[in-house]
C-alpha cells in the first residue's frame, strides 16, 4: 500500500509521520506533502532533533500536494480535519482516498463523513448551476448576495455536520518550543503504531 501523509507546510507533522513509518516498516512505500508547501525545504530542526532522540534520522525535502502524488497514493492521511476538507474541495476526484490519520485508525466518524462528502458535492453542484444560470443577468455583487441566500440552508447543514465531528486533529507544533515537537511526535507515533497494525491485519 502506498501512503501519502499531508499537513500544511510539509516540514513538521507529515515528515515525522513519514519517517516513523519508514523506520518501523522499511518496506513501506510512503511519502509526505503539504497543502501550502514550498519545494525542497528542509524539515523543521526541532522535528529532526525529536526524531533523532528516538534513534531515527530524517533527510527530508518538502513538496506540495499534486494530482500526480494523489494518483500515486492508495491512501492519503491528513494531520487535521481542515487538511482533509481542503483536499476534498481542491482534489474531489481523489476523495475516496482521504482520511485524517486519527479517523482512519479509529473508524468512529465514518457515517458523518459520508454525509459530509455528499453535502460538499451537492453544494458545489448547486453553486455552479446557480452561477451558470444567473451570471449574465446579475452583476458580481448581486450574484454573490443571491448565491449566499440560495445556499444558506446547505451551508447551515454542512456546518452542523462539521460541528458533530470528533476532533481528529494532530496538534501543530510549528513555532513551539522543542518539547511541543516531542509531544506531537509522541502523539503521531501512537497513531502510526495503530496504522501499521491495521495495515498488517
Automatic annotation (TrEMBL):
UniProt cross-references to CDD domains, sorted A to Z: LMWPAP (cd16344)
SUPFAM superfamilies: Phosphotyrosine protein phosphatases I
Signal peptide from the UniProt entry: none
Keyword Hydrolase found: yes
Keyword set, alphabetical order: Hydrolase, Protein phosphatase
Source species, domain of life: Bacteria
Similarity section: Belongs to the low molecular weight phosphotyrosine protein phosphatase family.
Protein name: Low molecular weight protein arginine phosphatase
Organism for this UniProt entry: Virgibacillus byunsanensis
Amino acid at each position: 500500500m502506498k501512503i501519502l501523509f499531508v499537513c500544511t507546510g510539509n516540514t513538521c507533522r507529515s515528515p515525522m509521520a513519514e519517517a516513523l513509518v519508514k523506520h518501523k516498516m522499511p518496506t513501506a512505500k510512503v511519502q509526505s506533502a503539504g497543502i501550502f508547501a514550498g519545494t525542497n525545504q528542509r524539515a523543521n530542526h526541532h522535528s529532526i532533533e525529536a526524531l533523532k532522540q528516538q534513534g531515527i534520522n530524517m533527510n527530508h525535502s518538502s513538496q506540495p500536494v499534486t494530482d500526480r502524488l494523489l494518483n500515486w497514493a492508495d491512501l492519503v492521511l491528513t494531520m487535521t480535519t481542515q487538511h482533509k476538507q481542503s483536499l476534498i474541495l481542491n482534489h474531489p476526484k481523489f476523495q475516496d482516498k482521504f482520511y485524517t490519520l486519527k479517523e482512519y485508525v479509529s473508524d468512529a466518524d465514518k457515517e458523518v463523513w459520508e454525509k459530509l462528502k455528499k453535502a460538499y458535492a451537492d453544494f458545489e453542484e448547486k453553486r455552479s448551476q446557480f452561477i451558470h444560470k444567473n451570471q449574465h443577468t446579475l452583476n458580481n455583487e448581486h450574484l454573490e448576495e443571491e448565491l449566499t441566500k440560495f445556499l444558506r440552508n446547505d451551508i447551515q447543514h454542512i456546518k452542523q455536520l462539521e460541528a458533530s465531528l470528533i476532533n481528529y486533529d494532530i496538534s501543530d507544533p510549528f513555532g513551539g518550543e522543542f518539547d511541543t515537537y516531542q509531544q506531537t511526535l509522541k502523539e503521531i507515533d501512537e497513531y502510526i503504531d495503530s496504522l501499521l497494525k491495521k495495515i498488517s491485519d
